[in-house]
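Colleagues,

For the teaching module next term, I've prepared a clean inverse folding example: a structure given as tokens, and then the sequence designed for it. I'd like students to try predicting residues themselves before seeing the answer, so please don't circulate the second half yet.
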């Protein structure tokens, strides 16, 4: 254990102030595809009973009209976050008729891009921008890639913690700058160690063969219609998932807020030849928002992002530049098909400890070599994480077995978990970390291995496995209906969101082109 890290944890415990680590707030964003009872992608519009995807605070869509996204608030108690996500699921399952929510990250029975409906948000300028952006993603990367689903974990620490750490470190930075600097340190350490999360929680080692769409791949057949990586963990995070050759040209630096914002600004303003060939418009309308490497900040695919809640019409980079980092968003989690809400409580507790560890450990600036090692390790675990012969590279370039490197990380994470247990007067954090230690010692205990075993039990068919999970989840939620007050609350939110969308549309005065110009002028 690093000496400074150990001293900081010890000081946290010695203070005996539960409010410091009790100030952690976490929110969850969870995506799921709507499908027909036969397992086909739903072609129906976003259900009116779910409200407006533009303005509803908890229920929206991501890329496709069929790709639902559930958003919880940020809660100080993990149980409150998970309970809210559960209640959203119970409401939605009761309102989508005979449709189901696909229970896995990788989609299935998708053969043509044109069969994937792009999300629609209404006629307002902000709605049109969201839709045109998604049309552009389809032109740039194909719509198939945009139907992959996952879980995003939002994490922050409260004022009490930051005031204590600022004083403990004797920092001369302004409090807000200190918080931003430490969140960027967390992000750098996260990139160095993200491979461990992919190993422990990756749950997409197989997919339907229709998904590859003629693209080159290294997957092996497993029964008719299924491809898999025998030692793979998360195909969602690999070359067939959230990866972009063009985006590899973007040298994003996480060494400071200024460098990060400037790198995004360049990517949004500098044209890219491939996207210039697509063009911005054709006779049928808009093809994309612009021809730059990124249309907007959210197009940059990253396993973690610094975040700040934006004001109406404000760009994410402007919000960060003016007010600093407010929280971080972890984006490398697959849906857990064995959990109806897509994430287990033990997973969330491990993430809390992992992120606290990343925050408190020393985090030297990153360079091209370090970023290259981090990317190599991540992709190696994506493709061969459960291979007993797999070796990963340390920051000094030396190669060591995955288990050796993982056990070293787990020791520090366990120390952070013990501090969290003290703050919460329990043992659940240590239990969750011990469970992950078992997965490190026994690759067959990982979710990816469990998924492959279940696929084999379903006749070597990923489709049949995922359909069984989808039906089981649907029955789980329908069997636990909301009480009358909760049901009425969600119905009221749906009505209010539809009224909110109508108000935005009625207030629009600018032509769409001027609205876009104002947005990019930020």
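(Answer key — instructors only)
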């Amino acid at each position: 254990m690093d000496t400074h890290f150990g001293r900081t944890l010890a000081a946290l415990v010695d203070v005996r102030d539960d409010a410091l680590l009790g100030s952690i707030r976490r929110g969850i964003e969870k995506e799921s595809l709507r499908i027909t009872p036969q397992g086909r992608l739903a072609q129906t519009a976003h259900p009116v009973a779910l409200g407006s995807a533009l303005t509803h605070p908890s229920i929206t869509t991501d890329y496709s009209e069929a790709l639902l996204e559930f958003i919880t608030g940020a809660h100080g108690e993990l149980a409150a976050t998970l309970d809210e996500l559960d209640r959203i699921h119970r409401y939605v399952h009761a309102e989508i008729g005979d449709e189901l929510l696909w229970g896995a990250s990788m989609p299935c029975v998708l053969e043509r891009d044109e069969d994937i409906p792009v999300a629609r948000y209404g006629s307002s300028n902000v709605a049109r921008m969201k839709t045109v952006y998604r049309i552009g993603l389809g032109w740039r990367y194909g719509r198939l890639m945009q139907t992959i689903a996952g879980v995003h974990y939002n994490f922050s620490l409260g004022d009490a913690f930051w005031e204590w750490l600022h004083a403990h470190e004797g920092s001369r930075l302004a409090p807000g700058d200190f918080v931003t600097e430490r969140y960027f340190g967390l992000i750098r350490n996260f990139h160095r160690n993200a491979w461990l999360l992919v190993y422990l929680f990756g749950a997409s080692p197989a997919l339907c063969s229709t998904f590859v769409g003629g693209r080159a791949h290294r997957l092996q057949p497993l029964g008719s219609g299924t491809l898999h990586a025998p030692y793979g963990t998360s195909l969602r995070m690999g070359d067939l998932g959230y990866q972009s050759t063009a985006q590899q040209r973007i040298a994003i630096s996480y060494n400071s807020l200024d460098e990060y914002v400037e790198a995004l600004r360049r990517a949004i303003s500098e044209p890219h030849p491939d996207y210039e060939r697509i063009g911005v418009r054709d006779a049928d309308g808009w093809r994309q928002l612009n021809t730059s490497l990124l249309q907007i900040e959210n197009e940059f695919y990253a396993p973690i992002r610094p975040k700040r809640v934006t004001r109406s019409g404000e760009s994410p980079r402007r919000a960060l530049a003016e007010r600093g980092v407010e929280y971080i968003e972890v984006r490398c989690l697959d849906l857990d098909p064995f959990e109806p809400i897509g994430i287990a409580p033990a997973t969330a507790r491990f993430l809390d400890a992992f992120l606290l560890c990343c925050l408190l450990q020393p985090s030297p600036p990153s360079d091209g070599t370090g970023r290259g090692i981090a990317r190599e390790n991540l992709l190696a675990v994506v493709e061969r994480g459960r291979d007993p012969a797999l070796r990963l590279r340390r920051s000094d370039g030396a190669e060591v077995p995955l288990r050796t490197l993982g056990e070293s990380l787990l020791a520090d994470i366990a120390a952070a978990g013990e501090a969290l247990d003290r703050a919460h007067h329990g043992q659940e954090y240590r239990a969750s970390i011990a469970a992950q230690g078992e997965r490190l010692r026994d690759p067959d205990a990982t979710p990816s291995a469990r998924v492959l075993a279940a696929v084999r039990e379903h006749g070597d068919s990923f489709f049949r496995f995922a359909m069984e999970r989808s039906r089981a989840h649907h029955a789980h939620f329908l069997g636990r209906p909301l009480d009358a007050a909760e049901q009425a609350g969600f119905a009221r939110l749906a009505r209010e969101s539809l009224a909110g969308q109508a108000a935005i549309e009625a207030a629009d005065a600018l032509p769409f082109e001027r609205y876009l110009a104002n947005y990019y002028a930020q």
